[in-house]
């Protein structure tokens, strides 16, 4: 059942970083299909041909949300910590919101919450960082197309008082079963954003668990395993340097809760 609720607010997206921390073209996360049929030792790869969530680690990817193992959390377990939600202001006063930032905390590397199809890198100049990234792991993530798919994030778990949206904010996930449409498989790109309900106190244990699905009614691609974002709130951006302020297009948001059967 769909639930519609208007929110008379515009979300402010804070771009927080330091000099040299921004990638010129690539984004923080990508979606691909795993083309590797066998793992080392001839073991069948349980993620073969499935949608996979990828963390951009510079010249290669870390696959997240894998069946048969991890890491399945962000920040990854070897890094620890949580992504910071900063205190909002203006129309978002009284809420904590996700921002892109860079500081001494290794978890800040995971704060670039922009998500894109792997194939948005297909035309990158030869020898560029993006071209190296696209063809990393011997083409494991770029070999299989996503054309024909309509990729979405489905909420598996969501902390009370935490919400998520993608792109223009026309869909807002507020509970288990909600979906955020990312877009057509080979071309989508946009920001994944998180924000708390009004009046939610500072907390260190907020999290959101998703899985990738193909909502194409024809012949949907296989979904990913579950993966989790971990957050903590801070009363203000602190020592991070604010370098930009953009509007996230959330004025008059329609809050949609769309509960449907889980796909394979």
TrEMBL record:
Coiled coil: none annotated. Residues 1-21 form the signal peptide. The chain crosses the membrane at residues 237-255. InterPro entries: Ice-binding_C. Keywords: Membrane, Signal, Transmembrane, Transmembrane helix. It comes from Tautonia plasticadhaerens. Pfam families: PEP-CTERM. The keyword Signal applies. This is PEP-CTERM motif protein. The keyword Protease does not apply. Residues 233-257 form the Ice-binding protein C-terminal domain.
